[in-house]
UniProtKB/TrEMBL annotation, chain A:
The keyword Phosphoprotein does not apply. This is Phosphate ABC superfamily ATP binding cassette transporter, ABC protein. It is an enzyme of class 3 (hydrolase). It comes from Limosilactobacillus antri DSM 16041. The keyword Hydrolase applies. InterPro entries: AAA+_ATPase, ABC_transporter-like_ATP-bd, ABC_transporter-like_CS, P-loop_NTPase, PstB-like. Residues 7-246 form the ABC transporter domain. Gene3D superfamilies: P-loop containing nucleotide triphosphate hydrolases. NCBIfam families: 3a0107s01c2. PROSITE patterns: ABC_TRANSPORTER_1 (PS00211), ABC_TRANSPORTER_2 (PS50893). Its EC number is 3.6.3.27. One of its GO terms (molecular function) is ATP hydrolysis activity.
From TrEMBL, chain B:
This is Phosphate transport system permease protein. It is found in: Cell membrane. The lineage of its organism: Bacteria, Bacillati, Bacillota, Bacilli, Lactobacillales. Coiled coil: none annotated. Belongs to the binding-protein-dependent transport system permease family. CysTW subfamily. Keywords: Cell membrane, Membrane, Phosphate transport, Transmembrane, Transmembrane helix, Transport. It comes from Limosilactobacillus antri DSM 16041.
From TrEMBL, chain C:
GO terms for cellular component: plasma membrane. NCBIfam families: 3a0107s02c. It comes from Limosilactobacillus antri DSM 16041. It comes from the Bacteria. This is Phosphate transport system permease protein PstA.
């Protein structure tokens, strides 16, 4: 593996109360690539994803190390808010706030205290272009974000995450609530985004993983079963469980 | 064929039953609708009698501050001003505290605390207003008298009582509205690196602002219409208040004490019904405000 | 670190203010119970009130309050339920329905003193009922209708549409679907709402002082003939309730132990309201559990 790792997870365990849901996962996410995490519901893939930017802090006990630029960010004295600005997250359901499109995009910048109008204007255009939404909304930036279609809302949420210029974007089944046309638009967007960002995506959709991901991690019952280049995982899985899952024997 | 046609087009037990049921439910709603119309009609005609039958000037009624029924002066301004004053004061004090309590309960305190808080709030919402008035009379009025001199009766005492009375209602409505904010908003905001307070102040409260406004108006409408609790502590002097500690009278308190002491159909009785009409019109106005706030909340 | 510091400060301030508010409100309740409960005894609950000397009880007021609740519920529950059935099952989406909804909303926003005055005007004077339980019950019905209708409608609406369709598909009439399928499914919500509203009217006073009146004449609990003027069941006798009693004793009363009587009455009122609330929860969960079986 010659790729440079953007994030390295070592011996990650996650428990909800007494229930272990993720056991001993170790994984290196390559920089500026799309990594898909696949597996049946309850396999722990979303839990791993949420642990990467400490979104599980209030819900679960997460042990193990998560190295980001040589720093273990899974430590109590690490500033989780800063972590989440560097490692952004896009959720399953589009979650625009009941604000204008413009205000939605700059939400994270405002949190960081950015006030300069020019910077904000420029960042809104930049992020909306990156999320391939600019042309559709440039004339209605002041309109309520809730008036957008589901696919547009999700791209707005991507733009909102991009606006704080994170290095890594975590996506939790970002297209599962969308129609096929919106889904393919978002997949195209992702391919463009990986030139600048590292993307880690949980998906239920095998085609989506095989179409857009460079790397694929397969999880089963809280453990990482197999990780490798997407082509290899899909064409020539090394583990029997992976093959069974891909051929639809369970899941 | 004809047999079938006949069977399908004639009434059956089922269709007769449907007809009867429909009639019953129509009747119920018509009764309620008619009741509301009757109330509005009766109170309006009684309330206008002072001006139509007794020929009293509407302008004087609304702008004069001289209320002396025994001398045929019917200036309602002191009561109108006092009613608004105690309502606004109580609302202004109660809103931030209701909001703060609701935020603490929904966003900060552990869920387990709710098992205790919820029933207590429900109980407080149900405590009869007379009890609030009674506590005002026996606890708040004497304390205010000690603190500021005088009798303790007056605007401030009424404000305190109304504040205590509307706080639980406003808090519980605000809680409902904050709970209605999708939890995804909170997650998404946290995912962008927001602290809890940033999420509360920038997403949760703005999303619920229509509902919070509704809660405030609702509480104030209740305060405006409250009669006995206010009557017990305000001192009942139908004069223009000149300070927080001055005795005064609200529309409701004058009505409460007056209706039993006047004879139906006399001018001084009609003047009281005119006060009731103002009360009615104000509750309609609050209703309108509530609708506007609710519409605002939808966006 | 600025945002985090703000977060810490804001959290502290919010919790402190909420804590103080909670403390004030809880001490209000505790105060009422602490000064009130020592006055509550069997003698207090079961002897009649005195007009001029101390030592009076609240027997008649307590009974009047409960009887009034029963009378009010007898009128308002069927009316509110049928109106709610109309609104949730039959009402077309048109102007008339919107107007009816508006009317109910207006009714719910009327101050109780205004409803009391209307009751005085119409039931007491026009209908010639005088100050009586019946006039009071009718006034309370007006007060109770809007909220009860809404809670019934909410309960009916929570029944899934699929269950209605299943019934209609079997050739049942809409009315039969409503009474046989929807009503049973909505029962726990309806009963919970009814009990809560009963608690609300139990403590109502402003709507009653000019309808049910402010006096409690001597009544006989052995006279079961509702038409006899001294019978406790007679709906045409004037009846001061517990809440009115507290007001009356404190604003115009002549009894020397007004404080003790009101403290005790307030405690009894609060405990009864608490009982209504607990009962509503209990009944709601019991029925839900039975339906789940």
């Amino acid at each position: 593996m010659t790729e440079q790792a953007a994030l390295e997870v070592k011996n990650l365990h996650v428990a909800y109360g007494a229930k272990q849901v993720v056991q001993d996962v170790s994984l290196k996410f390559p920089a500026r690539q799309i990594t898909a995490m696949i597996g049946a519901s309850g396999s722990g893939k979303s839990t791993v994803l949420r642990s990467l930017n400490r979104m599980n802090d209030d819900l679960a006990t997460v042990t193990g190390t998560i190295n980001f630029h040589g720093l273990n960010i899974n430590q109590p004295d690490v500033n989780v808010y800063r972590v989440r600005q560097r490692i952004g997250m896009v959720f399953q359901q589009p979650t625009p706030f009941p604000l204008s499109i413009y205000e939605n995009v700059i939400y994270g910048l405002r949190l960081a205290g950015e006030r300069d109008r020019r910077v904000l204007d420029q960042r809104v255009e930049e992020s909306l272009r990156q999320a391939a939404l600019w042309d559709e909304v440039k004339d209605q930036l002041k309109a309520s974000a809730l008036a957008l279609s589901g696919g547009q809302q999700q791209r707005l949420c991507i733009a909102r995450t991009l606006a704080v210029r994170p290095e890594i974007i975590l996506m939790d089944e970002p297209t599962s609530a969308l129609d096929p046309v919106s889904t393919s638009q978002i997949e195209e967007t992702l391919v463009q985004l990986k030139e600048q960002f590292t993307i880690i995506m949980v998906t239920h959709n095998m085609q989506q993983a095989s179409r857009s991901a460079d790397w694929t991690a397969f999880m089963h019952q809280g453990r990482l079963v197999e990780f490798g280049p997407t082509a290899q995982i899909f064409m020539n899985p090394q583990e029997e469980q992976t093959a069974d899952y891909l051929s639809g024997k369970f899941g | 064929m004809d047999e079938l046609k006949k069977q399908l087009t004639t009434a059956s037990a089922e269709s007769r039953q449907e007809w009867r049921g429909k009639l019953i439910s129509y009747l119920a709603i018509v009764i309620i609708g008619g009741l509301v119309a009757t109330i509005l009609l009766f109170l309006t005609s009684k309330g206008l009698a002072l001006f139509t039958k007794d020929g009293y000037s509407l302008g004087t009624f609304l702008t004069s501050s001289n209320w002396q029924p025994s001398h045929h002066f019917y200036g309602a301004l002191p009561m109108i001003v006092t009613s608004f004053a105690v309502t606004l004061l109580a609302g202004i004090v109660a809103l931030p505290l209701a909001l703060v309590s609701a935020v603490a309960i929904t966003e900060m305190l552990p869920k387990r605390a709710n098992q205790w808080i919820q029933p207590v709030i429900e109980l407080l919402v149900g405590v009869p207003s007379v009890v609030y008035g009674y506590v005002g009379l026996t606890v708040i009025v004497p304390r205010l008298g000690q603190l500021f001199g005088g009798t303790g009766f007056g605007i401030l005492a009424a404000t305190c009582v109304l504040f205590l009375m509307v706080l639980p209602t406003m808090t519980s409505m605000t809680i409902d509205n904050l709970r209605r904010v999708p939890k995804e908003y909170r997650l998404a905001s946290a995912g962008l690196g927001a602290t809890r307070w940033q999420t509360i102040s920038r997403v949760v409260i703005p999303s619920a602002k229509g509902g919070i406004l509704t809660a405030m108006i609702f509480g104030m409408a209740r305060a405006f219409g409250e009669a006995l609790a206010v009557q017990m502590v305000i001192g009942n002097a139908a004069v223009m208040p000149d300070g927080l500690m001055s005795s005064a009278a609200t529309l409701t308190s004058v009505l409460t004490t007056g209706i039993g002491n006047t004879v139906m159909g006399t001018t001084s009785n009609n003047a009281l019904w005119s006060l009731a009409l103002i009360l009615l019109l104000m509750s309609l106005a609050f209703n309108l405000l509530l609708r506007l706030a609710a519409r605002k909340g939808e966006h | 670190m600025r945002a985090e510091k703000v977060d810490k400060i804001a959290t502290t301030v919010v919790l402190a203010l909420a804590g103080l508010t909670g403390l004030a409100v809880v001490s209000f309740l505790v105060y009422l119970l602490v000064v009130g409960l020592p006055n509550v005894s069997w003698h207090f609950l079961f002897s009649p009130a005195e007009s001029f000397k101390s030592g009076g009880g609240i027997r008649d007021q307590l009974f009047n309050s409960l009887y009034l609740v029963v009378l009010t519920m007898l009128v308002s529950v069927p009316l509110a339920l049928c109106a709610a059935i109309y609104l949730s099952e039959y009402a077309p989406q048109n102007r008339l329905t919107a107007l009816l909804r508006l009317a109910i909303e207006v009714l719910s926003s009327l101050p109780s003193v205004v409803i009391g005055l209307f009751g005085y005007l119409v039931f007491v004077l026009q209908f010639g009922l005088d100050f009586s339980l019946l006039a009071g019950a009718l006034a309370l019905t007006i007060l109770n209708l809007p909220l009860l209708t809404r809670s019934c409608e909410d309960a009916l609406r929570q029944v899934p549409a699929l269950q209605r369709q299943a019934g209609l598909g079997l050739g049942m009439s809409k009315w039969r679907v409503t009474t046989k399928i929807v009503l049973p499914a909505a029962l726990s919500g309806i009963i919970t709402g009814a009990i809560l509203s009963a608690g609300r009217i139990f403590g109502e006073a402003a709507a009653l002082i000019y309808t049910a009146g402010q006096s409690a004449p001597a009544i006989s609990y052995t006279d079961w003939n509702p038409f006899s003027p001294t019978s406790f069941l007679n709906p045409l006798r004037p009846a001061e309730t517990l809440a009115v009693h507290i007001w009356k004793v404190n604003s115009e009363g002549l009894v020397p132990d007004a404080r003790a009587v009101s403290n005790g009455s307030a405690a009894v009122l609060i405990i009864t309201i608490l009982a209504f609330n607990l009962l509503a929860r209990l009944v709601g969960s019991l029925i839900k559990r039975r339906l789940a079986k």
